[in-house]
Every structure is written in structure tokens, then in C-alpha cells.
Design goal:
Layout (H helix, E strand, L loop, with lengths): L4 H9 L8 E2 L7 H5 L3 H5 L2 H15 L3 E5 L4 H5 L3 E3 L8 E3 L16 H4 L5 H12 L7 E7 L1 H8 L15 H21 L3 E7 L6 H20 L3 E7 L1 H12 L6 E5 H4 L8 H6 L3 E4 L11 H15 L3 E4 L9 H10 L5
Parallel strand pairs: 1-10, 2-5, 5-6, 6-7, 7-8, 8-9, 9-10
Antiparallel strand pairs: 3-4
Length: about 350
């Protein structure tokens, strides 16, 4: 029997090994090209987003569609002003007030207020409209910044290399955890089937600090599972991930870990086969892979397909939102070549 993507995800939540990998790439901003509108206009228009999502899902033949994914969604909802200079560059974040780097800005909205502010209602409306479609067999995905990534953004430490727990205040981390959980809940109530926890791995993880990190993530993971949805922990920061591989895998996680493909495909960093069998990985393709001018694309496609065959991942995704400069035809070709059976 051919199971739908929603059935595979539900069975996976119940402990069953997926019969094939779920192809869940994060393709969101590219919808502005599909609708031929400026990105800033697209991000605020649920009708355009829904139209683009339906077209891209049919064109790419994926198992799930990103209803909303923006790394700056939360900070804007919390009170920041975003200044976009181009569709290809991240916006500048402007906080009113004079808080120093490392400190939380003054006048932040509460997590509950943020869930009703900025573009959060737009994202929720997109999920609701997509969920209302008849006979839907694909998954609805929504991205939420993880506590560490959000705390770094709020305290303006996101550009600092090697950010660890010692650089982030307990207040910022707890606040980030509350916002992450609140927004995940809001999207789940709207009908999301999977939550991408877009998180930055703190460097220098020890067994104790890894447990602290897991405790910050636990509320969002727990509420996602409460709604019978799939929690996906998107681990950004390839260097940090490589250093912390064994520490992270040494803990039992109640979610699916999506590792950068470059790490999983490295023979020197693979964990034991027993660990890989007990914890099916999620593979996240590097965003550099989708840039039109990226060299060695043919070799990378072949290498990635080999990694998929060897590791039998539960989910295949991308390391973030596919770049606005990506070519849709090339995107379709890459996804078509990925092995879809174990």
C-alpha cells in the first residue's frame, strides 16, 4: 500500500521506521518569483503565498510545503523594524532604544502579544487556508526560530562567531524559549503538520549544557507532539555541529534531528551504525548547493544521492529557505534525482 506523506509522518511519530524519506525542502521566498511580486509584498499577502505554495507543490512534487518560513518573523512581531535593501539579502533589524549588545531590547512584546503581531497572523492565515483544501495528502510546514537563535538575534549577537551559552543571558534564553513555544502553538492550532525549529547549535556543548539546551527546546517539541505534528530540529552551524556531534547524539531527543548534509556525508564524522539505526537522521542540503553559480553541482548531486542511499534518512530538507536566486527548473531536477525509496 502506498502511504501518503501525512500517514508516513503519523506512523513515524508512533515509532515506525519510514518506508521512504519524506522530501520536505524549505521553499518559501521563491514564491514571490512565482507570483511575480516583490518579496516584501509577498510576505504580507496570504492570497499570494497560498497561490504560490500550491503551484510550487504541484511543480516540485514534494511531500510538504513551507507555509511560512522567515528567520526574522519573530523579532518583527516582538517590536523590531525591518529594513529590506534587496530580495537577496537579509533585512537590517532596527530596535528602538539603547540596549547594548548582549542585552534584551526594551519594550519587547510578550510572547502572547507577539503571536498576534507583525506577520504572525499572515502566516497563520496561510496555514488555515492550506489546511482547508479537500483531500490534502501532503504536509504543511511552518518555521519557528529556536531559543538560542532567537536569543542571539534579540541581543544582537547573531553575527558573532562561536556563540555559546556563556554569551547569552538566562533571561534571553528563557524568553526565546517562551516565544518559540508560543508561536509553534499558534501555527499548530492553525493546522500545521510539522514545525521546523530553526536553531543554532551553541558551540562548546558539554553533557550539562546540552541538557540545558534540550530543556529550552522541550516545551516547543512537546506541544508539537501534543498536536500529533512532526517536530523537526533544524541544526544550523556546520562547524559547531561537527564538534558537538557525539554530545548531541548522546542524548535522547523526542524529535527528528536534521543535520547538515556535509556532516552526515563525511566518513570521519559518522556516528556508529547503531546510533544511525536507532535515530534516523534528517538530511539538510546546504543552501550554497542551490546557487546558480555554485561550482561542482553535478558531483554534489551524485554524492548527496549516495548519502541518501547509505543513511536512509527519515526526512530530506534544506538548511534553510532556498535562496531567492535559485532556478525553479534546477530545483525540480535536483529533487527528482534524489532516491525516494529505502
Amino acid at each position: 500500500m502506498n502511504l501518503t506523506a501525512r500517514q508516513i509522518a503519523r506512523n513515524f511519530l508512533n515509532g515506525e521506521t519510514p518506508p521512504r524519506p519524506l522530501l520536505l525542502p524549505i521553499v518559501f521566498a521563491l514564491g514571490a518569483k512565482v507570483e511575480n511580486v516583490p518579496l516584501n509584498q509577498f510576505l504580507n499577502n496570504p492570497t499570494k503565498i497560498v497561490s504560490a505554495a500550491r503551484q510550487m507543490r504541484n511543480h516540485l512534487q514534494v511531500d510538504g510545503i513551507a507555509c511560512y518560513f522567515d528567520a526574522f518573523l519573530e523579532v518583527e512581531a516582538l517590536g523590531a523594524a525591518l529594513q529590506r535593501t534587496s530580495d537577496d539579502e537579509p533585512p537590517l533589524v532596527d530596535w528602538k532604544g539603547s540596549a547594548k549588545a548582549g542585552e534584551l531590547p526594551q519594550g519587547l512584546r510578550s510572547p502572547e502579544e507577539a503571536a498576534k503581531s507583525g506577520r504572525i497572523p499572515v502566516a497563520t492565515e496561510v496555514i488555515r487556508r492550506m489546511n482547508a483544501g479537500p483531500n490534502r495528502d501532503f504536509l504543511l510546514l511552518a518555521g519557528v526560530s529556536g531559543p538560542v537563535k532567537l536569543a542571539a538575534l534579540l541581543t544582537r549577537l547573531e553575527k558573532r562567531e562561536n556563540t555559546g551559552f556563556g554569551d547569552l543571558s538566562a533571561e534571553a534564553l528563557e524568553f526565546g524559549s517562551s516565544v518559540t513555544t508560543q508561536l509553534a502553538t499558534t501555527f499548530l492550532e492553525g493546522g500545521a503538520d510539522a514545525i521546523f525549529l530553526d536553531e543554532q547549535i551553541p558551540v562548546g556543548l558539554t553533557t550539562r549544557t546540552c541538557e540545558d539546551w534540550a530543556n529550552l527546546l522541550a516545551p516547543a517539541i512537546n506541544v508539537t507532539r501534543f498536536y500529533d505534528a512532526l517536530p523537526l530540529l533544524q541544526l544550523a552551524g556546520a562547524t559547531s555541529a561537527l564538534e558537538c556531534w557525539e554530545t548531541v547524539l548522546g542524548r535522547a531527543w523526542d524529535c527528528l534531528l536534521c543535520w547538515p548534509e556535509s556532516i552526515v556525508s563525511s566518513s570521519t564524522s559518522l556516528p556508529s551504525s547503531a546510533a544511525m539505526q536507532s535515530i534516523p537522521p534528517g538530511l539538510a542540503l546546504s543552501l550554497e548547493f542551490f546557487r546558480p553559480d555554485h561550482p561542482g553541482k553535478e558531483e554534489q548531486i551524485a554524492k548527496f544521492c549516495e548519502t541518501v542511499t547509505n543513511t536512509k534518512p527519515a526526512v530530506i530538507t534544506t538548511a534553510g529557505d532556498v535562496p531567492f536566486s535559485a532556478d525553479m527548473r534546477y530545483l525540480k531536477r535536483v529533487f527528482a534525482e534524489i532516491p525516494r525509496a529505502h
